[in-house]
Design a protein that fits this description.
InterPro entries (chains A, B, C): Gly_transporter
Order of helices and strands of chain A: HHHHHHHH
Largest sheet of chain A: none
Family (chains A, B, C): Belongs to the UPF0126 family.
Oligomer: homotrimer
Pfam families (chains A, B, C): Gly_transporter (PF03458)
Largest interface: A-B, 30 and 33 residues
Number of strands of chain A: 0
Membrane topology (chains A, B, C): Multi-pass membrane protein
Subcellular location (chains A, B, C): Cell membrane
Chain lengths: 207, 207, 207
Amino acid sequence: MTLLSLLDYGSVLIFALTGALVASRAQLDLVGFAFMASLTAVGGGTVRDVLLDRHPVFWVANPTYILIATSAAVLVFFTAHLVESRYNWLVWLDSFALSIAVAAGAGVALELGQPPMIVVLMGMITGCLGGLMRDVVNDELPLVLKQVQLYVSCAFAGASVAVLASFQDLPEIVVLAACAATCWGLRAGSLLFGWQLPVYKSRPPRN
Amino acid sequence: MTLLSLLDYGSVLIFALTGALVASRAQLDLVGFAFMASLTAVGGGTVRDVLLDRHPVFWVANPTYILIATSAAVLVFFTAHLVESRYNWLVWLDSFALSIAVAAGAGVALELGQPPMIVVLMGMITGCLGGLMRDVVNDELPLVLKQVQLYVSCAFAGASVAVLASFQDLPEIVVLAACAATCWGLRAGSLLFGWQLPVYKSRPPRN
Amino acid sequence: MTLLSLLDYGSVLIFALTGALVASRAQLDLVGFAFMASLTAVGGGTVRDVLLDRHPVFWVANPTYILIATSAAVLVFFTAHLVESRYNWLVWLDSFALSIAVAAGAGVALELGQPPMIVVLMGMITGCLGGLMRDVVNDELPLVLKQVQLYVSCAFAGASVAVLASFQDLPEIVVLAACAATCWGLRAGSLLFGWQLPVYKSRPPRN
Protein backbone atom coordinates (compact mmCIF):
# COMPACT_ATOMS: atom_id res chain seq x y z
CA MET A 1 0.00 0.00 0.00
CA THR A 2 1.35 3.41 -0.93
CA LEU A 3 1.57 6.35 1.44
CA LEU A 4 -1.06 8.20 -0.61
CA SER A 5 -3.64 5.42 -0.39
CA LEU A 6 -2.89 5.13 3.32
CA LEU A 7 -3.74 8.80 3.70
CA ASP A 8 -6.91 8.31 1.67
CA TYR A 9 -7.88 5.42 3.97
CA GLY A 10 -7.21 7.51 7.05
CA SER A 11 -9.19 10.52 5.94
CA VAL A 12 -12.06 8.33 4.70
CA LEU A 13 -12.28 6.59 8.07
CA ILE A 14 -12.24 9.74 10.17
CA PHE A 15 -14.47 11.81 7.90
CA ALA A 16 -16.92 8.90 7.92
CA LEU A 17 -17.04 9.08 11.72
CA THR A 18 -17.94 12.77 11.51
CA GLY A 19 -20.62 12.09 8.89
CA ALA A 20 -22.11 9.42 11.11
CA LEU A 21 -22.06 11.78 14.10
CA VAL A 22 -24.05 14.30 12.05
CA ALA A 23 -26.46 11.48 11.20
CA SER A 24 -26.81 10.70 14.91
CA ARG A 25 -27.67 14.31 15.63
CA ALA A 26 -30.33 14.08 12.88
CA GLN A 27 -31.58 10.75 14.30
CA LEU A 28 -31.36 8.82 11.04
CA ASP A 29 -31.50 5.03 10.66
CA LEU A 30 -28.49 2.82 9.92
CA VAL A 31 -28.63 3.26 6.17
CA GLY A 32 -28.88 7.02 6.63
CA PHE A 33 -25.76 6.81 8.80
CA ALA A 34 -23.92 4.92 6.05
CA PHE A 35 -25.08 7.45 3.45
CA MET A 36 -23.92 10.49 5.39
CA ALA A 37 -20.68 8.73 6.37
CA SER A 38 -19.85 7.81 2.78
CA LEU A 39 -20.76 11.21 1.35
CA THR A 40 -18.52 12.97 3.87
CA ALA A 41 -15.75 10.42 3.53
CA VAL A 42 -15.32 10.36 -0.23
CA GLY A 43 -16.82 13.71 -1.28
CA GLY A 44 -13.63 15.76 -1.32
CA GLY A 45 -11.46 13.11 -2.96
CA THR A 46 -14.12 12.49 -5.58
CA VAL A 47 -14.17 16.13 -6.63
CA ARG A 48 -10.35 16.09 -6.72
CA ASP A 49 -10.32 13.04 -9.00
CA VAL A 50 -13.03 14.37 -11.32
CA LEU A 51 -11.31 17.76 -11.63
CA LEU A 52 -7.97 16.12 -12.40
CA ASP A 53 -9.62 13.62 -14.80
CA ARG A 54 -8.17 10.81 -12.72
CA HIS A 55 -10.34 7.82 -13.60
CA PRO A 56 -11.51 5.54 -12.21
CA VAL A 57 -12.30 7.71 -9.19
CA PHE A 58 -10.48 6.30 -6.15
CA TRP A 59 -13.46 4.56 -4.54
CA VAL A 60 -14.80 3.27 -7.87
CA ALA A 61 -11.41 1.67 -8.42
CA ASN A 62 -11.41 0.25 -4.91
CA PRO A 63 -14.77 0.02 -3.10
CA THR A 64 -12.99 -0.87 0.15
CA TYR A 65 -13.22 2.83 0.94
CA ILE A 66 -17.00 2.57 1.03
CA LEU A 67 -16.79 -0.52 3.26
CA ILE A 68 -14.62 1.46 5.67
CA ALA A 69 -17.07 4.35 5.69
CA THR A 70 -19.98 1.98 6.26
CA SER A 71 -18.17 0.23 9.10
CA ALA A 72 -17.52 3.58 10.72
CA ALA A 73 -21.22 4.35 10.39
CA VAL A 74 -22.17 1.08 12.11
CA LEU A 75 -19.69 1.75 14.91
CA VAL A 76 -21.08 5.21 15.56
CA PHE A 77 -24.70 4.01 15.34
CA PHE A 78 -24.13 1.67 18.27
CA THR A 79 -21.72 3.71 20.37
CA ALA A 80 -22.51 7.41 19.88
CA HIS A 81 -24.67 7.48 23.00
CA LEU A 82 -21.60 6.60 25.06
CA VAL A 83 -19.77 9.84 24.34
CA GLU A 84 -20.29 12.92 26.44
CA SER A 85 -20.45 15.65 23.79
CA ARG A 86 -21.05 14.49 20.25
CA TYR A 87 -20.42 18.01 18.89
CA ASN A 88 -16.97 18.11 20.47
CA TRP A 89 -16.13 14.71 18.97
CA LEU A 90 -17.43 15.89 15.63
CA VAL A 91 -15.30 19.03 15.59
CA TRP A 92 -12.13 17.31 16.74
CA LEU A 93 -12.43 14.28 14.49
CA ASP A 94 -13.14 16.67 11.66
CA SER A 95 -9.86 18.46 12.41
CA PHE A 96 -7.89 15.21 12.04
CA ALA A 97 -9.75 14.20 8.89
CA LEU A 98 -9.22 17.65 7.40
CA SER A 99 -5.46 17.51 8.00
CA ILE A 100 -5.02 14.04 6.56
CA ALA A 101 -7.23 14.77 3.56
CA VAL A 102 -5.33 17.97 2.76
CA ALA A 103 -2.12 15.93 2.73
CA ALA A 104 -3.77 13.27 0.55
CA GLY A 105 -5.04 15.83 -1.95
CA ALA A 106 -1.76 17.73 -2.15
CA GLY A 107 0.15 14.45 -2.45
CA VAL A 108 -1.89 13.27 -5.42
CA ALA A 109 -1.41 16.58 -7.21
CA LEU A 110 2.34 16.54 -6.50
CA GLU A 111 2.61 13.02 -7.87
CA LEU A 112 0.82 14.13 -11.05
CA GLY A 113 3.38 16.91 -11.44
CA GLN A 114 0.78 19.69 -11.18
CA PRO A 115 2.01 23.26 -10.71
CA PRO A 116 2.22 24.66 -7.15
CA MET A 117 -1.08 26.52 -7.20
CA ILE A 118 -3.01 23.46 -8.32
CA VAL A 119 -1.31 21.41 -5.59
CA VAL A 120 -2.49 23.92 -2.99
CA LEU A 121 -6.00 24.00 -4.43
CA MET A 122 -6.31 20.22 -4.61
CA GLY A 123 -5.20 19.98 -1.00
CA MET A 124 -7.86 22.50 -0.01
CA ILE A 125 -10.56 20.86 -2.13
CA THR A 126 -9.86 17.35 -0.88
CA GLY A 127 -9.78 18.59 2.69
CA CYS A 128 -12.76 20.90 2.73
CA LEU A 129 -15.36 19.61 0.28
CA GLY A 130 -16.40 16.39 2.03
CA GLY A 131 -17.27 18.26 5.19
CA LEU A 132 -18.90 20.99 3.15
CA MET A 133 -21.19 18.48 1.43
CA ARG A 134 -22.03 16.90 4.80
CA ASP A 135 -23.14 20.25 6.18
CA VAL A 136 -24.94 21.48 3.05
CA VAL A 137 -26.96 18.26 2.70
CA ASN A 138 -27.83 18.50 6.36
CA ASP A 139 -29.12 22.06 5.71
CA GLU A 140 -26.61 23.67 8.08
CA LEU A 141 -24.14 26.54 7.69
CA PRO A 142 -20.93 24.67 6.76
CA LEU A 143 -18.15 24.38 9.37
CA VAL A 144 -16.00 25.83 6.58
CA LEU A 145 -17.81 29.14 6.91
CA LYS A 146 -18.16 29.37 10.67
CA GLN A 147 -16.72 32.75 11.45
CA VAL A 148 -14.04 33.49 14.05
CA GLN A 149 -12.43 30.09 13.44
CA LEU A 150 -9.64 29.01 11.16
CA TYR A 151 -10.67 26.28 8.74
CA VAL A 152 -10.00 26.90 5.06
CA SER A 153 -6.96 28.85 6.25
CA CYS A 154 -5.55 25.71 7.90
CA ALA A 155 -6.02 23.75 4.68
CA PHE A 156 -4.36 26.56 2.75
CA ALA A 157 -1.39 26.74 5.14
CA GLY A 158 -0.93 22.96 5.20
CA ALA A 159 -1.05 22.61 1.44
CA SER A 160 1.34 25.53 1.01
CA VAL A 161 3.81 23.85 3.36
CA ALA A 162 3.55 20.72 1.21
CA VAL A 163 4.46 22.73 -1.87
CA LEU A 164 7.41 24.45 -0.18
CA ALA A 165 8.68 21.20 1.30
CA SER A 166 8.38 19.46 -2.08
CA PHE A 167 10.95 21.87 -3.50
CA GLN A 168 13.54 20.60 -0.96
CA ASP A 169 13.74 17.07 -2.36
CA LEU A 170 12.61 15.62 0.98
CA PRO A 171 11.04 12.16 1.15
CA GLU A 172 7.30 12.19 0.38
CA ILE A 173 6.41 11.13 3.91
CA VAL A 174 8.19 14.15 5.42
CA VAL A 175 6.53 16.52 2.97
CA LEU A 176 3.06 15.19 3.69
CA ALA A 177 3.61 14.91 7.44
CA ALA A 178 4.67 18.56 7.54
CA CYS A 179 1.54 19.43 5.57
CA ALA A 180 -0.82 17.55 7.90
CA ALA A 181 0.92 18.81 11.05
CA THR A 182 0.70 22.44 9.95
CA CYS A 183 -2.95 22.13 9.09
CA TRP A 184 -3.89 20.34 12.29
CA GLY A 185 -1.77 22.58 14.51
CA LEU A 186 -3.50 25.68 13.24
CA ARG A 187 -6.97 24.15 13.50
CA ALA A 188 -6.29 22.89 17.03
CA GLY A 189 -4.91 26.28 18.04
CA SER A 190 -8.06 27.89 16.68
CA LEU A 191 -10.32 25.50 18.60
CA LEU A 192 -8.33 25.60 21.86
CA PHE A 193 -6.96 29.12 22.03
CA GLY A 194 -9.28 30.98 19.69
CA TRP A 195 -6.59 31.72 17.10
CA GLN A 196 -8.16 33.58 14.22
CA LEU A 197 -7.46 35.92 11.39
CA PRO A 198 -9.02 39.38 11.44
CA VAL A 199 -12.57 39.03 10.15
CA TYR A 200 -14.33 41.55 8.01
CA LYS A 201 -16.11 44.24 9.98
CA SER A 202 -18.59 46.35 8.08
CA ARG A 203 -17.45 49.56 9.82
CA PRO A 204 -13.77 49.43 10.87
CA PRO A 205 -12.74 51.73 13.75
CA ARG A 206 -11.60 55.21 12.72
CA ASN A 207 -7.89 55.97 13.05
CA MET B 1 -34.55 1.96 -27.93
CA THR B 2 -32.79 -0.10 -25.29
CA LEU B 3 -34.30 -1.01 -21.94
CA LEU B 4 -31.75 1.17 -20.16
CA SER B 5 -32.57 4.30 -22.12
CA LEU B 6 -36.27 3.57 -21.57
CA LEU B 7 -35.62 3.55 -17.83
CA ASP B 8 -33.66 6.79 -18.13
CA TYR B 9 -36.60 8.34 -20.01
CA GLY B 10 -39.06 7.15 -17.38
CA SER B 11 -37.09 8.42 -14.39
CA VAL B 12 -36.36 11.72 -16.14
CA LEU B 13 -40.07 12.27 -16.83
CA ILE B 14 -41.26 11.47 -13.32
CA PHE B 15 -38.43 13.21 -11.46
CA ALA B 16 -39.13 16.26 -13.66
CA LEU B 17 -42.72 16.26 -12.45
CA THR B 18 -41.50 16.30 -8.83
CA GLY B 19 -39.05 19.11 -9.57
CA ALA B 20 -41.85 21.12 -11.14
CA LEU B 21 -44.10 20.47 -8.15
CA VAL B 22 -41.38 21.87 -5.89
CA ALA B 23 -41.20 24.87 -8.21
CA SER B 24 -44.97 25.32 -7.88
CA ARG B 25 -44.67 25.32 -4.10
CA ALA B 26 -41.98 28.01 -4.45
CA GLN B 27 -44.18 29.96 -6.93
CA LEU B 28 -41.55 30.26 -9.65
CA ASP B 29 -42.18 31.26 -13.27
CA LEU B 30 -42.19 28.85 -16.19
CA VAL B 31 -38.45 28.98 -16.75
CA GLY B 32 -37.90 28.34 -13.06
CA PHE B 33 -40.16 25.30 -13.38
CA ALA B 34 -38.09 24.01 -16.30
CA PHE B 35 -34.87 24.63 -14.36
CA MET B 36 -35.97 22.74 -11.25
CA ALA B 37 -37.52 19.97 -13.37
CA SER B 38 -34.33 19.47 -15.38
CA LEU B 39 -32.03 19.60 -12.37
CA THR B 40 -34.07 16.97 -10.55
CA ALA B 41 -34.54 14.86 -13.66
CA VAL B 42 -30.95 14.54 -14.81
CA GLY B 43 -29.00 15.27 -11.61
CA GLY B 44 -28.54 11.69 -10.43
CA GLY B 45 -27.76 10.22 -13.84
CA THR B 46 -25.29 13.01 -14.52
CA VAL B 47 -23.31 12.25 -11.38
CA ARG B 48 -23.38 8.55 -12.31
CA ASP B 49 -22.00 9.26 -15.78
CA VAL B 50 -19.31 11.65 -14.54
CA LEU B 51 -18.17 9.21 -11.84
CA LEU B 52 -18.00 6.34 -14.33
CA ASP B 53 -16.27 8.58 -16.93
CA ARG B 54 -19.08 7.77 -19.33
CA HIS B 55 -18.94 10.56 -21.89
CA PRO B 56 -20.83 12.19 -23.39
CA VAL B 57 -23.14 12.42 -20.38
CA PHE B 58 -26.52 10.90 -21.29
CA TRP B 59 -28.40 14.15 -21.83
CA VAL B 60 -25.49 15.82 -23.62
CA ALA B 61 -25.50 12.90 -26.04
CA ASN B 62 -29.28 13.15 -26.42
CA PRO B 63 -30.94 16.42 -25.41
CA THR B 64 -34.39 14.83 -25.78
CA TYR B 65 -34.15 14.19 -22.04
CA ILE B 66 -34.16 17.93 -21.40
CA LEU B 67 -37.11 18.39 -23.75
CA ILE B 68 -39.01 15.77 -21.74
CA ALA B 69 -38.18 17.49 -18.47
CA THR B 70 -39.23 20.85 -19.89
CA SER B 71 -42.50 19.42 -21.17
CA ALA B 72 -43.20 17.99 -17.74
CA ALA B 73 -42.53 21.42 -16.28
CA VAL B 74 -45.01 23.06 -18.66
CA LEU B 75 -47.63 20.43 -17.85
CA VAL B 76 -47.29 20.99 -14.12
CA PHE B 77 -47.24 24.77 -14.51
CA PHE B 78 -50.70 24.70 -16.05
CA THR B 79 -52.29 21.84 -14.10
CA ALA B 80 -50.81 21.76 -10.59
CA HIS B 81 -53.70 23.79 -9.20
CA LEU B 82 -56.05 20.96 -10.18
CA VAL B 83 -54.57 18.45 -7.74
CA GLU B 84 -55.74 18.24 -4.19
CA SER B 85 -52.46 17.82 -2.29
CA ARG B 86 -49.35 18.74 -4.19
CA TYR B 87 -47.15 17.38 -1.41
CA ASN B 88 -48.77 13.96 -1.67
CA TRP B 89 -48.26 13.92 -5.43
CA LEU B 90 -44.67 15.00 -4.92
CA VAL B 91 -43.89 12.22 -2.48
CA TRP B 92 -45.60 9.48 -4.48
CA LEU B 93 -44.22 10.54 -7.86
CA ASP B 94 -40.82 10.74 -6.21
CA SER B 95 -41.22 7.13 -5.07
CA PHE B 96 -41.79 5.95 -8.66
CA ALA B 97 -38.95 8.06 -10.03
CA LEU B 98 -36.63 6.77 -7.33
CA SER B 99 -37.38 3.15 -8.13
CA ILE B 100 -36.94 3.53 -11.88
CA ALA B 101 -33.79 5.57 -11.49
CA VAL B 102 -32.22 3.02 -9.13
CA ALA B 103 -32.85 0.36 -11.78
CA ALA B 104 -31.41 2.62 -14.48
CA GLY B 105 -28.28 3.32 -12.46
CA ALA B 106 -27.70 -0.29 -11.48
CA GLY B 107 -28.37 -1.40 -15.05
CA VAL B 108 -25.74 0.92 -16.50
CA ALA B 109 -23.14 -0.25 -13.98
CA LEU B 110 -23.99 -3.91 -14.67
CA GLU B 111 -23.63 -3.33 -18.39
CA LEU B 112 -20.19 -1.79 -17.82
CA GLY B 113 -19.19 -4.89 -15.87
CA GLN B 114 -18.60 -3.01 -12.62
CA PRO B 115 -18.16 -5.04 -9.42
CA PRO B 116 -21.23 -5.62 -7.21
CA MET B 117 -20.52 -2.82 -4.74
CA ILE B 118 -20.19 -0.23 -7.48
CA VAL B 119 -23.43 -1.48 -9.04
CA VAL B 120 -25.22 -0.96 -5.74
CA LEU B 121 -23.67 2.47 -5.25
CA MET B 122 -24.47 3.63 -8.78
CA GLY B 123 -28.07 2.53 -8.29
CA MET B 124 -28.25 4.53 -5.06
CA ILE B 125 -26.52 7.58 -6.56
CA THR B 126 -28.70 7.65 -9.68
CA GLY B 127 -31.80 7.22 -7.58
CA CYS B 128 -31.11 9.60 -4.73
CA LEU B 129 -28.98 12.48 -6.01
CA GLY B 130 -31.47 14.18 -8.33
CA GLY B 131 -34.00 14.55 -5.53
CA LEU B 132 -31.23 15.54 -3.15
CA MET B 133 -30.15 18.39 -5.46
CA ARG B 134 -33.80 19.47 -5.85
CA ASP B 135 -34.19 19.78 -2.09
CA VAL B 136 -30.77 21.33 -1.36
CA VAL B 137 -31.21 24.02 -4.03
CA ASN B 138 -34.65 24.73 -2.61
CA ASP B 139 -33.01 25.19 0.82
CA GLU B 140 -34.97 22.32 2.41
CA LEU B 141 -33.91 19.30 4.42
CA PRO B 142 -33.66 16.61 1.71
CA LEU B 143 -36.36 13.91 1.51
CA VAL B 144 -33.38 11.53 1.65
CA LEU B 145 -32.74 12.56 5.24
CA LYS B 146 -36.30 12.76 6.53
CA GLN B 147 -36.20 10.58 9.60
CA VAL B 148 -38.62 7.72 10.37
CA GLN B 149 -38.99 6.96 6.67
CA LEU B 150 -37.19 4.53 4.43
CA TYR B 151 -35.56 6.22 1.46
CA VAL B 152 -31.88 5.50 0.90
CA SER B 153 -32.62 2.08 2.35
CA CYS B 154 -35.10 1.38 -0.46
CA ALA B 155 -32.51 2.35 -3.04
CA PHE B 156 -29.97 0.13 -1.31
CA ALA B 157 -32.33 -2.85 -1.17
CA GLY B 158 -33.42 -2.44 -4.78
CA ALA B 159 -29.88 -2.16 -6.10
CA SER B 160 -28.81 -5.16 -4.01
CA VAL B 161 -31.61 -7.22 -5.51
CA ALA B 162 -30.35 -6.20 -8.96
CA VAL B 163 -26.89 -7.50 -8.10
CA LEU B 164 -28.19 -10.78 -6.70
CA ALA B 165 -30.53 -11.32 -9.64
CA SER B 166 -27.73 -10.57 -12.10
CA PHE B 167 -25.83 -13.60 -10.79
CA GLN B 168 -28.72 -15.85 -11.88
CA ASP B 169 -28.30 -15.23 -15.59
CA LEU B 170 -31.85 -13.88 -15.82
CA PRO B 171 -32.87 -11.56 -18.67
CA GLU B 172 -31.99 -7.92 -18.03
CA ILE B 173 -35.63 -6.87 -17.89
CA VAL B 174 -36.36 -9.30 -15.04
CA VAL B 175 -33.30 -8.19 -13.09
CA LEU B 176 -34.21 -4.52 -13.37
CA ALA B 177 -37.92 -5.08 -12.75
CA ALA B 178 -37.08 -6.93 -9.54
CA CYS B 179 -34.83 -4.04 -8.55
CA ALA B 180 -37.48 -1.37 -9.16
CA ALA B 181 -40.24 -3.42 -7.54
CA THR B 182 -38.21 -4.00 -4.38
CA CYS B 183 -37.30 -0.36 -4.08
CA TRP B 184 -40.83 0.89 -4.70
CA GLY B 185 -42.46 -1.73 -2.47
CA LEU B 186 -40.34 -0.70 0.50
CA ARG B 187 -40.87 3.00 -0.13
CA ALA B 188 -44.63 2.56 -0.51
CA GLY B 189 -44.74 0.45 2.65
CA SER B 190 -42.89 3.15 4.49
CA LEU B 191 -45.27 5.86 3.27
CA LEU B 192 -48.46 3.84 3.80
CA PHE B 193 -47.75 1.68 6.83
CA GLY B 194 -44.91 3.56 8.48
CA TRP B 195 -42.34 0.83 7.86
CA GLN B 196 -39.00 2.01 9.18
CA LEU B 197 -35.68 0.83 10.46
CA PRO B 198 -34.76 1.57 14.06
CA VAL B 199 -33.47 5.13 14.20
CA TYR B 200 -30.66 6.32 16.37
CA LYS B 201 -31.77 7.41 19.84
CA SER B 202 -29.27 9.39 21.85
CA ARG B 203 -30.20 7.57 25.07
CA PRO B 204 -31.41 4.02 24.45
CA PRO B 205 -33.65 2.49 27.12
CA ARG B 206 -31.82 0.64 29.91
CA ASN B 207 -32.13 -3.15 29.92
CA MET C 1 -5.75 35.82 -25.74
CA THR C 2 -8.90 34.52 -27.39
CA LEU C 3 -12.32 36.11 -27.00
CA LEU C 4 -13.55 33.08 -25.06
CA SER C 5 -10.80 33.21 -22.46
CA LEU C 6 -11.37 36.96 -22.18
CA LEU C 7 -15.00 36.26 -21.34
CA ASP C 8 -13.93 33.63 -18.81
CA TYR C 9 -11.58 36.18 -17.22
CA GLY C 10 -14.34 38.77 -17.08
CA SER C 11 -16.96 36.51 -15.54
CA VAL C 12 -14.42 35.09 -13.06
CA LEU C 13 -13.47 38.57 -11.91
CA ILE C 14 -17.02 39.84 -11.46
CA PHE C 15 -18.44 36.65 -9.96
CA ALA C 16 -15.49 36.68 -7.54
CA LEU C 17 -16.52 40.17 -6.40
CA THR C 18 -20.04 38.88 -5.67
CA GLY C 19 -18.68 35.88 -3.77
CA ALA C 20 -16.52 38.18 -1.69
CA LEU C 21 -19.49 40.44 -1.00
CA VAL C 22 -21.40 37.43 0.32
CA ALA C 23 -18.37 36.63 2.48
CA SER C 24 -18.42 40.18 3.83
CA ARG C 25 -22.08 39.82 4.78
CA ALA C 26 -21.13 36.58 6.59
CA GLN C 27 -18.14 38.35 8.27
CA LEU C 28 -15.54 35.79 7.21
CA ASP C 29 -11.77 36.26 7.32
CA LEU C 30 -9.57 36.87 4.29
CA VAL C 31 -9.16 33.20 3.41
CA GLY C 32 -12.90 32.73 3.68
CA PHE C 33 -13.32 35.63 1.25
CA ALA C 34 -10.93 33.97 -1.20
CA PHE C 35 -12.75 30.65 -0.84
CA MET C 36 -16.22 32.09 -1.51
CA ALA C 37 -14.87 34.27 -4.33
CA SER C 38 -13.16 31.33 -6.06
CA LEU C 39 -16.12 28.99 -5.65
CA THR C 40 -18.49 31.53 -7.16
CA ALA C 41 -16.06 32.53 -9.86
CA VAL C 42 -15.16 29.14 -11.29
CA GLY C 43 -18.13 26.99 -10.19
CA GLY C 44 -20.24 27.34 -13.33
CA GLY C 45 -17.39 26.98 -15.79
CA THR C 46 -16.08 23.95 -13.91
CA VAL C 47 -19.39 22.13 -14.23
CA ARG C 48 -19.48 23.07 -17.94
CA ASP C 49 -16.00 21.64 -18.50
CA VAL C 50 -16.66 18.45 -16.53
CA LEU C 51 -19.96 17.83 -18.35
CA LEU C 52 -18.33 18.36 -21.75
CA ASP C 53 -15.30 16.24 -20.74
CA ARG C 54 -13.08 19.22 -21.50
CA HIS C 55 -9.88 18.49 -19.59
CA PRO C 56 -7.94 20.02 -18.05
CA VAL C 57 -10.69 22.15 -16.51
CA PHE C 58 -10.07 25.81 -17.43
CA TRP C 59 -8.62 26.91 -14.10
CA VAL C 60 -6.57 23.73 -13.67
CA ALA C 61 -5.01 24.47 -17.06
CA ASN C 62 -4.43 28.08 -16.09
CA PRO C 63 -4.47 28.93 -12.37
CA THR C 64 -4.40 32.66 -13.19
CA TYR C 65 -8.18 32.50 -12.83
CA ILE C 66 -7.80 31.65 -9.16
CA LEU C 67 -5.29 34.48 -8.70
CA ILE C 68 -7.84 36.87 -10.18
CA ALA C 69 -10.57 35.60 -7.89
CA THR C 70 -8.27 35.89 -4.88
CA SER C 71 -7.28 39.43 -5.82
CA ALA C 72 -10.94 40.35 -6.11
CA ALA C 73 -11.46 38.89 -2.63
CA VAL C 74 -8.63 40.98 -1.18
CA LEU C 75 -9.99 44.11 -2.85
CA VAL C 76 -13.46 43.57 -1.40
CA PHE C 77 -12.10 42.68 2.04
CA PHE C 78 -10.48 46.11 2.33
CA THR C 79 -13.04 48.24 0.53
CA ALA C 80 -16.50 46.76 1.06
CA HIS C 81 -17.18 49.08 4.00
CA LEU C 82 -16.90 52.02 1.60
CA VAL C 83 -19.97 51.11 -0.43
CA GLU C 84 -23.42 52.21 0.57
CA SER C 85 -25.48 49.06 -0.03
CA ARG C 86 -23.55 45.86 -0.38
CA TYR C 87 -26.68 43.97 -1.41
CA ASN C 88 -27.28 46.33 -4.32
CA TRP C 89 -23.69 45.93 -5.47
CA LEU C 90 -24.02 42.17 -5.12
CA VAL C 91 -27.15 41.98 -7.26
CA TRP C 92 -25.88 44.31 -9.97
CA LEU C 93 -22.39 42.80 -10.21
CA ASP C 94 -24.07 39.41 -10.33
CA SER C 95 -26.12 40.59 -13.33
CA PHE C 96 -22.95 41.50 -15.25
CA ALA C 97 -21.18 38.29 -14.28
CA LEU C 98 -24.23 36.25 -15.28
CA SER C 99 -24.38 37.84 -18.73
CA ILE C 100 -20.69 37.41 -19.46
CA ALA C 101 -20.65 33.84 -18.15
CA VAL C 102 -23.65 32.85 -20.27
CA ALA C 103 -21.80 34.14 -23.32
CA ALA C 104 -18.65 32.28 -22.25
CA GLY C 105 -20.54 29.01 -21.76
CA ALA C 106 -22.46 29.25 -25.00
CA GLY C 107 -19.29 30.24 -26.85
CA VAL C 108 -17.38 27.19 -25.66
CA ALA C 109 -20.21 24.87 -26.68
CA LEU C 110 -20.49 26.55 -30.09
CA GLU C 111 -16.75 26.14 -30.63
CA LEU C 112 -17.03 22.43 -29.79
CA GLY C 113 -19.78 22.11 -32.42
CA GLN C 114 -22.43 21.05 -29.91
CA PRO C 115 -26.07 21.00 -31.06
CA PRO C 116 -28.25 24.08 -30.33
CA MET C 117 -29.90 22.70 -27.19
CA ILE C 118 -26.58 21.85 -25.58
CA VAL C 119 -25.29 25.33 -26.45
CA VAL C 120 -28.26 26.88 -24.67
CA LEU C 121 -27.87 24.57 -21.67
CA MET C 122 -24.14 25.17 -21.34
CA GLY C 123 -24.75 28.92 -21.43
CA MET C 124 -27.33 28.56 -18.66
CA ILE C 125 -25.15 26.22 -16.59
CA THR C 126 -22.04 28.39 -16.86
CA GLY C 127 -24.05 31.46 -16.01
CA CYS C 128 -26.19 30.19 -13.17
CA LEU C 129 -24.28 27.50 -11.29
CA GLY C 130 -21.49 29.59 -9.77
CA GLY C 131 -23.99 31.90 -8.11
CA LEU C 132 -26.13 28.92 -7.16
CA MET C 133 -23.19 27.27 -5.36
CA ARG C 134 -22.38 30.58 -3.63
CA ASP C 135 -25.91 30.82 -2.25
CA VAL C 136 -26.33 27.12 -1.38
CA VAL C 137 -23.04 26.99 0.53
CA ASN C 138 -24.05 30.14 2.34
CA ASP C 139 -27.32 28.37 3.33
CA GLU C 140 -29.54 30.88 1.51
CA LEU C 141 -32.32 30.52 -1.01
CA PRO C 142 -30.43 30.94 -4.32
CA LEU C 143 -30.84 34.19 -6.29
CA VAL C 144 -31.73 31.83 -9.15
CA LEU C 145 -34.94 30.89 -7.37
CA LYS C 146 -36.01 34.27 -6.04
CA GLN C 147 -39.52 34.60 -7.28
CA VAL C 148 -40.93 37.58 -9.19
CA GLN C 149 -37.54 38.19 -10.81
CA LEU C 150 -36.10 37.05 -14.10
CA TYR C 151 -32.86 35.14 -13.68
CA VAL C 152 -32.66 31.72 -15.34
CA SER C 153 -34.95 33.21 -17.98
CA CYS C 154 -32.33 35.84 -18.84
CA ALA C 155 -29.69 33.15 -19.20
CA PHE C 156 -32.05 31.16 -21.39
CA ALA C 157 -32.89 34.13 -23.60
CA GLY C 158 -29.25 35.18 -23.96
CA ALA C 159 -28.04 31.69 -24.83
CA SER C 160 -30.88 31.28 -27.32
CA VAL C 161 -29.89 34.51 -29.02
CA ALA C 162 -26.35 33.14 -29.27
CA VAL C 163 -27.64 30.04 -31.04
CA LEU C 164 -29.81 32.03 -33.45
CA ALA C 165 -27.03 34.48 -34.20
CA SER C 166 -24.56 31.66 -34.79
CA PHE C 167 -26.69 30.46 -37.72
CA GLN C 168 -26.12 33.82 -39.48
CA ASP C 169 -22.38 33.37 -39.98
CA LEU C 170 -21.68 36.52 -37.97
CA PRO C 171 -18.29 37.06 -36.33
CA GLU C 172 -17.99 35.33 -32.94
CA ILE C 173 -17.70 38.64 -31.12
CA VAL C 174 -21.07 39.82 -32.46
CA VAL C 175 -22.76 36.54 -31.59
CA LEU C 176 -21.49 36.61 -28.03
CA ALA C 177 -22.09 40.32 -27.54
CA ALA C 178 -25.71 39.86 -28.60
CA CYS C 179 -25.98 36.98 -26.15
CA ALA C 180 -24.59 38.97 -23.21
CA ALA C 181 -26.57 42.09 -24.08
CA THR C 182 -29.86 40.19 -24.23
CA CYS C 183 -29.21 38.45 -20.94
CA TRP C 184 -28.16 41.63 -19.15
CA GLY C 185 -30.92 43.74 -20.64
CA LEU C 186 -33.59 41.40 -19.37
CA ARG C 187 -32.00 41.08 -15.94
CA ALA C 188 -31.59 44.84 -15.61
CA GLY C 189 -35.17 45.36 -16.71
CA SER C 190 -36.31 42.91 -14.10
CA LEU C 191 -34.33 44.65 -11.37
CA LEU C 192 -35.24 48.21 -12.41
CA PHE C 193 -38.76 47.93 -13.76
CA GLY C 194 -39.95 44.69 -12.20
CA TRP C 195 -40.19 42.82 -15.52
CA GLN C 196 -41.30 39.29 -14.80
CA LEU C 197 -42.97 36.29 -16.29
CA PRO C 198 -46.27 35.13 -14.84
CA VAL C 199 -45.51 33.07 -11.78
CA TYR C 200 -47.38 30.00 -10.71
CA LYS C 201 -50.38 30.78 -8.53
CA SER C 202 -51.90 27.85 -6.73
CA ARG C 203 -55.43 29.13 -7.45
CA PRO C 204 -55.63 31.10 -10.71
CA PRO C 205 -58.50 33.60 -11.03
CA ARG C 206 -61.73 32.23 -12.54
CA ASN C 207 -62.57 33.43 -16.02
